[in-house]
Every structure is written in structure tokens, then in C-alpha cells.
Design brief:
The protein has 211 residues and is mainly alpha-helical. It has ten helices and no strands. Helix content is 65%, strand content 0%.
């Protein structure tokens, strides 16, 4: 059999260094596309940073938040859930998330507080006397006066065609405020305390409004 001579100095042509570098530097196309997709979704968009509705709402609501903070100091109660206060100070004409349901609770808490005080002062009081005392303290006229003294017309959010200083609007916001305190605190006692503080504001000519 014929033996082939093999040159010990002969080797197969090695790959050029540039070819090795190209092979290492060029990832599969699928990996490139996947990387672009991941990076693209993680980058913030200019529109969401500068002009999104959420950002605009946050900027627009800052004076409202400042007014709510002042109101909490005035009534002597700090909300654990500020969203309850925001809802209480929002009229039904402004948003579906408003204080109407809270006002129902606030009215009941206010009437209860007024009736309790009347009977505590006079256990023999007649039903009509208790009813009159409740109406005088928790009725719309007294409620609206307390709200006006506390600066509610300058705080409550209403739609363009709604007058924030109208007695039903102001009283509704006050009642919603009292109801919000009851829900936030989990007791009617805290709501009653805020109710009477508002009455004191209404009765004191020298009291200053929040706004």
C-alpha cells in the first residue's frame, strides 16, 4: 500500500482572527430582536413623563390637596385615608366618585350627635324638643353656615355649571366630611366631635375660613 507523505509542518488553514471576532460579535438575529423588544418596553416614553393625563391631574390637584390639608388642621382631625376626604369634598356634578353616600352617613351621625346632646342636657325633653334641637343643629341652614365658615365653598370640587357656595352643595359637603370621619375612624364618636367643632366655627364670628 502506498504511504502518503505528511508534512509535519503542514496544518489546515486556520480561521483568520477577523473571522473569529466577527463570529463572536454577531449574535443570532432572534436574540437581537428580543433584546430590542425588552429594552424598548423598559424605556420611558416622553409623553408619559411630560404630558400624560395622570401627570396633569397631579399638578392640577396640588392646590386642592393643600386646601384639604388646611381643612384637616381646622377641624382637628387628620385622615388616615386621605382619599375619603377627597371624595367628601367632591360634588356629584364633578365626578362619579363623590361624597353623596358619605353625606347620608354624615347626616345620620350629625342628627344622632344633636339628639344625644339634647337628651343629655334634659332627659325629660319632649320628642318635639329633641326634634327641634336636632333640626337647629343638623339642619341644612346650620350645616351650610358651618360649611361657609370653614371655607368649604372654596374647597369643594364642582362642575362648571354648579355654584359651590349654594347651601345644598355646602351642606352636602359638610355632611360628607362628617361621614368621611366616621368611616376613616370607624366610630361615630370622632364624627360627632368634628360635627361640633364645625358648629363652634359657625357660632364664632371671629373664626376664620380655611381658604
Amino acid at each position: 500500500m502506498e504511504k502518503r507523505h505528511v508534512d509535519p509542518h503542514y496544518t489546515s488553514s486556520p480561521a483568520r482572527p477577523s473571522e473569529h471576532l466577527a463570529a463572536m460579535a454577531t449574535p443570532p438575529l432572534a436574540a437581537v430582536l428580543l433584546l430590542l423588544a425588552v429594552v424598548g418596553t423598559s424605556l420611558p416614553q416622553a409623553s408619559t413623563l411630560d404630558s400624560s393625563p395622570a401627570a396633569a391631574e397631579a399638578l392640577a390637584s396640588s392646590p386642592f390637596d393643600a386646601a384639604l390639608a388646611a381643612l384637616q388642621k381646622q377641624i382637628g382631625y387628620a385622615f388616615q385615608s386621605p382619599d375619603l376626604l377627597r371624595r367628601a369634598m367632591t360634588h356629584a356634578s364633578y365626578s362619579r366618585e363623590n361624597g353623596r353616600a358619605l353625606a347620608v352617613l354624615g347626616l345620620a351621625a350629625s342628627q344622632s350627635a344633636a339628639a344625644l346632646r339634647a337628651l343629655t342636657a334634659d332627659r325629660d325633653a319632649s320628642p318635639s324638643a329633641v326634634s327641634r334641637a336636632t333640626r337647629d343643629a343638623a339642619g341644612e341652614a346650620a350645616c351650610a353656615a358651618a360649611g361657609a365658615r370653614a371655607g368649604i365653598p372654596a374647597i369643594v370640587r364642582v362642575a362648571g355649571g354648579t355654584k359651590a357656595s349654594a347651601a345644598p352643595v355646602v351642606c352636602g359637603a359638610v355632611r360628607a366630611l362628617v361621614g368621611a370621619v366616621a368611616v376613616d375612624n370607624g366610630t361615630a364618636d370622632a364624627a360627632a366631635e368634628v360635627f361640633w367643632r364645625l358648629q363652634v366655627l359657625s357660632a364664632a364670628p371671629s373664626a376664620t375660613a380655611a381658604m
